[in-house]
């Protein structure tokens, strides 16, 4: 319902990846290869596939290596949001990154989460999320996934999804629990009133819930996160099974 295609994105990639040590002692988490492909490239490819032409990516840990990789990535024009001096957390990093984009609708993605198994010939998960987003009723539309279609997740249920698509924080025993899949559609103006220092984006999730303006859309396929060394072989096994068609 955003009418024009969304052609810009912000990718949150500045985290330290501490739970993925010792792998992240020698490389930034977004560049950790999963089935032979740097983790961040799954998300960048998904953005390019949906028609995004310009992305901002924030960097901190091994920032020089991140910048070199992003400069060589062929499918998008990428601007770096530099957080070498200070990590800005998810909200502060997003606000700083959005300032480097044209005001308008935008995809926001986490660099360490991705999905596989979208249906061939049908709209992608990001296409569907953009089509679902209605700025008249929503501050943000979040891509969500049922817990049983996750790999590498810690088991935490983030939200519960009502029949009309509204999200609220999950309460034990609640109906239709979902996991936040790490992709958002929103307007850049949403964070205009945000502080200029580090803060967590959950503040805006909770504000939107309070105003009945946080909505969720369930994705197709399998969702993968690689937060620990043990999650890496699990992720690669799921990808291998998917490629084998089993």
Would you give an account of this structure?
By secondary structure, the chain is of the alpha/beta class. The chain has one domain (8-244): Spore Coat Polysaccharide Biosynthesis Protein SpsA, Chain A. The protein contains 6 helices and 14 strands. Strands 1, 4, 5, 6, 8, 10, 11, 12 and 13 form a 9-stranded mixed β-sheet that branches. The protein is globular, with a radius of gyration of 17 Å. The N and C termini lie far apart (35 Å). InterPro entries: GlmU-like, NTP_transferase_dom, Nucleotide-diphossugar_trans. GO terms for molecular function: nucleotidyltransferase activity. Keywords: Nucleotidyltransferase, Transferase. This is MurNAc alpha-1-phosphate uridylyltransferase.
Q: Please report the number of helical segments.
A: 6
Q: What is the β-strand count?
A: 14
Helix-strand sequence = EEEHEHEHEEHEEEEEHEEH
Residue-averaged pLDDT: 91
Structural class: alpha/beta
What would CATH call the class? Alpha Beta
Helical coverage, percent range: 25-40%
CATH topology: Spore Coat Polysaccharide Biosynthesis Protein SpsA, Chain A
Strand content: 25-35%
Computed over alpha carbons, the radius of gyration is 17 Å
Biggest sheet overview: 9 strands, mixed
| Structural domain count | 1
> Which parts are unreliable, with pLDDT below 50 for 5 consecutive residues or more?
none
